[in-house]
Every structure is written in structure tokens, then in C-alpha cells.
Design goal:
five-stranded antiparallel β-sheet; alpha+beta; Phosphorylase Kinase, domain 1; 40% helix; 13% strand; two-stranded antiparallel sheet; Aminoglycoside 3'-phosphotransferase, Chain: A, domain 2
Length: 326
């Protein structure tokens, strides 16, 4: 199978998608748009923002994604970013152009992307033995040129909390959480201001459900909705949460494996390594904010209203685990 949707762990997507069901898809129209014959569809699970389907045709296998949570311009950017990552050598989805050459088409007013099928499975958690390769892939991404075709319009700091987000924190009903989050963010701000930061193309969401383990054991990276220009250490910090957190804490052995692979692609000085703990915490604070904001303010859900608390415990585990880095 292939996991082709938005990561459920991804935070900050404040819209709720109105999903497209398989009975609403005009198969003849899809076939005409892409020059395919004898097509059939089956839904794919795992998407939290878009509707994806396994499309089988006489020409091969594909993933058809209805971008329920996008308009045409944002869909075009997503397609361009995905294709640019593929063309620069990242093992990821290859966008299939329509007959007219466009990277996106339209179905009942909603943008559509067709991608080549990647054979493999989502494995959660990602096995320890594969974490070095995940680190290498993230490091490779951080060496990509922001000026490459398709990357020229990527946003800056897309995973960071906006001024509007931070202004909302004092009004949180959970006063203890608001105080904790404010104090921690202020501390991160001070530490980040005290060091020089580099800028790179970052993924923003390298969690295990955005990674395909192929039959040969190699990995492919999915989901370029959060790609942006930012500090690569923050991206590595986000990946540490997505790949090295087990039962709410950062596991030193998994963290070490991830960073060991990353270092093979991007050398890290002692100063940079020391700053990594701060960026893992920063990533956790971002996720904690969005969990609280989404499930308690934007779309209240009693069953998820305390998910943010996990990140508070996770932050406590970061410093000890970071010191375990060999």
C-alpha cells in the first residue's frame, strides 16, 4: 500500500476538509484528462486533509488525490514543490502531467493531482534500523537549492507559530498550559537569538506516516504540504518528534540513529549539536500549541482536548535524550 495523505500528527491545518467519496469521481473524465484506459479506483486510508485513491489502469498504477483542502493556486504550488523534490533526487512521488501538460486538473471544482504509485508500506513506528536512512534523506533535502525550478515560491518559516498564533495564547482557558507555553517560547526565542541560524529547504513533517518503506527496504518521503525555507535544525527537531518519540518521550537510541544518518549528509559542529535540543523543544511547542488550539478552540473535541499535554511531558524528556547523542 501507499500512504499518500496528510499526516495525522501534523498540526496547524486549521480547516476541516469536505472529503470526496469514490462515488463522486467521474472516471471517464479522469481517463480523458490523463489519457488512461480501463481505470478503476479504490480508496486509500490515512489522509487527514485530502482524499486519495489507488488508481489502476492499463498504463500502470497511480495515486489520484483530490485536494479537498486546496484551491487551484495552492494545489499548483504543492504539485510544483513535489515535482521539484523528485527532480532534485528525493525518492518521492512523481507527478504525472495531464494530456495538456498541466500538473493539476479539476474535478467538480476541486483540484486533482495524479502521482505514480510507490510500492511499499507505512510502518509505525519506523524500525530503528531505518532511522539512519531517514536522517540521510532529510539531510539531502537540506542541501537542495531554494532556487531550483518549482521551489522559487516556497514560504518562509511555514511551520513556525505566527504572531497571530502567539497572541492567542494568553486567552487559553487552560491557564497553566498558557503560562508554560509562553515561558518556554520566550526561552526558545532567547536561545535562537543567541546563535547564527542557517536557512534551507525543509520538509516540516517528517513523521513515520509520511514515509514509505519499499520492498527493497529503502525509503520514500511523502507529503510536501509543509515545505518551506527555515532553519534546518528546526526541521530535524520536528523529525525527532515524528521518528524518535515513543510513548511520549524522546528515545535516545532512536534519536541517535536519526542524527547519525543526518550527519552523513550535513556536518554538524559541536555548537550546532548543542542547539539541537532547543529546536526539538521548539518543534514540540509548535505541536502543543496547534493541538490545543485545534481541539479546544477551532474544532472543539472532548476526546482530543488534552492531546497537548503529551508534549509537555515530551519536552521534559528532550534534554536528557539530547545528551545521549554520541
Amino acid at each position: 500500500m501507499i500512504g499518500a495523505g496528510k499526516s495525522p500528527q501534523s498540526e496547524g491545518n486549521e480547516r476541516v476538509a469536505n472529503y470526496t467519496t469514490i462515488d463522486r469521481i467521474d472516471l471517464p473524465a479522469v481517463a480523458r484528462s490523463y489519457g488512461l484506459a480501463d481505470i478503476r479506483l479504490e480508496p486509500l486510508s490515512g489522509g487527514a486533509a485530502n482524499s486519495s485513491f489507488h488508481l489502476v489502469s492499463a498504463s500502470g498504477e497511480f495515486v489520484l488525490t483530490i485536494l479537498d483542502n486546496h484551491d487551484a493556486p495552492s494545489a499548483g504550488c504543492l504539485a510544483a514543490h513535489t515535482q521539484s523534490a523528485f527532480q532534485q533526487g528525493m525518492p518521492t512521488s512523481e507527478i504525472v502531467a495531464a494530456v495538456d501538460g498541466s500538473l493539476i486538473t479539476e474535478l467538480e471544482g476541486r483540484p486533482v493531482i495524479l502521482k505514480k504509485w510507490i510500492e511499499g508500506t507505512v510502518v509505525q513506528p519506523l524500525p530503528l534500523a531505518l532511522l539512519p536512512e531517514a536522517g540521510r534523506l532529510l539531510g539531502r533535502l537540506h542541501t537542495f537549492s531554494p532556487q531550483a525550478p518549482g521551489f522559487s515560491d516556497i514560504p518562509v518559516g511555514g511551520r513556525r507559530l505566527s504572531d497571530e498564533h502567539r497572541a492567542a495564547i494568553p486567552d487559553f482557558a487552560d491557564r497553566a498550559f498558557a503560562a508554560w507555553l509562553t515561558e518556554r517560547l520566550d526561552r526558545v526565542d532567547r536561545l535562537e537569538a543567541s546563535r547564527a541560524r542557517s536557512v534551507a529547504v525543509v520538509h516540516g513533517d517528517l513523521f513515520d506516516d509520511n514515509i514509505i518503506v519499499r520492498p527493497d527496504g529503502r525509503l520514500s518521503v511523502l507529503d510536501w504540504e509543509t515545505v518551506s525555507l527555515d532553519d534546518p535544525l528546526l526541521d530535524l527537531g520536528m523529525a525527532a518528534i515524528g521518528l524518535a518519540k515513543v510513548d511520549g518521550v524522546l528515545v535516545p537510541e532512536r534519536f541517535n540513529a536519526l542524527v547519525t544518518g543526518y550527519r552523513e549528509m550535513v556536518p554538524m559542529s559541536d555548537t550546532t549539536t548543542a542547539a539541537l535540543a532547543t529546536e526539538i523543544e521548539h518543534a514540540a511547542l509548535i505541536i502543543a500549541f496547534h493541538r490545543y488550539h485545534r481541539h479546544n478552540i477551532r474544532f472543539p473535541d472532548p476526546d482530543k482536548s488534552t492531546l497537548h499535554i503529551e508534549m509537555m511531558g515530551f519536552v521534559d524528556s528532550v534534554e536528557e535524550a539530547a545528551y545521549a547523542l554520541s
